[in-house]
Amino acid sequence: MGAAVTSRSSRDVRTKRALITGISGQDGSYLAEVLLEKGRDVHGMVRKLGPEFPARLAHLRDRIALHQGDLANASSMEELISRVEPDEIYHLAAETSVSACMEFPEAAWQITGLGPERVFDAVRKHAPGARIFHASSSEVFGEPKETPQSETTPFHPRNDYGRAKAYAHRMAHHYRERHRLFIGVGILFNHESPRRGARFLTRKVSHSVAKIALGQDRELHLGDLHARRDWGYAGDFARAMPLILEADAPEDFVIGTGMAHSVEDFVRAAFNHVGLDWHDYVVIDRELMRPQESGIVQADPSKAKTVLDWEPSISFEELAAMMVEAEMTSLRGGRSAQSNVA
Ligand code: NAP
């Protein structure tokens, strides 16, 4: 596993060095691919450096360098930034599950709320010329004050994850204004892929549909089918991140598809892909119902389209089909180009 770093003076001045926190996560793996394609020297921070490469990065093992670091520890962040000397930092690492944040609010606050501040401060001290991408979330809008949500929609977070992300977002503005750091913020709406963590709803659905299609299961138990979200493809979102750092000025950008779909829509699309009627397999389980926290979450991505020329390339139906297809390949014991499923 590579962790060697050449000094800034000895490396090719044209090769930009990018450091990704959360590189082992869903977005980190797609972003690493995007940045390698752009010719970046890609480095990533992982909590534990072991003999095994993280599953989502196995296909990139000879092309990226990994370093140990923990967001909970300010000195770890300082040591990492001063050693790697990045030109760009993509700050993706966080506790990303809303329910895990509800269960362990203090830990979530330490990582998702205060973690970004540790990154910004380490950059201020050790790499003030570097550009930072910060991954914010549509959960800052919580119960939205307006629909669709844009860069000017007021924050109204409704859960611990949203509150932590709102604080980090404000810290990004503070470091941008007070310390003149270039911090571009992506207000990311939901995005999924075959590499989404197994605990998330779309993975639960795609995994279960694939098992049913292969005759390995008979039912899919779900809670509320009416919740609506703006769901995009993670690979498209990763494409937006470097564009945000290539912009003339550090700004906020809503990244989403602009279309809201219900859980039922996703379930229908996934079953349609394998030629089955979802009504025959879905069991509504009241125990799985969560209190509704948010209103209609729907992005207004017009600024990203105008300023960054960014648009999603994968439709909602294509996303559901891609996820089911990858699960079927994996259940049959194979690997798809989209796999590395955790
Ligand atoms: P993910 O798959 O859950 O990945 C999270 C990453 O954070 C993992 O690499 C994880 O490392 C790392 N991490 C967690 N705690 C850490 C710590 N204490 N120190 C260092 N690393 C730590 O999340 P994702 O879907 O790629 O999301 C990327 C970013 O976008 C996150 O900031 C998320 O909040 C934001 N976002 C995502 C969505 C979405 O729909 N996916 C929507 C809005 C915003 P391990 O592998 O060691 O666990």
TrEMBL record:
It is an enzyme of class 4 (lyase). Keywords: Lyase. This is GDP-mannose 4,6-dehydratase. It catalyses: GDP-alpha-D-mannose = GDP-4-dehydro-alpha-D-rhamnose + H2O. The keyword tRNA processing does not apply. Residues 140-159 are annotated as: Disordered. It comes from the Bacteria. Coiled coil: none annotated.
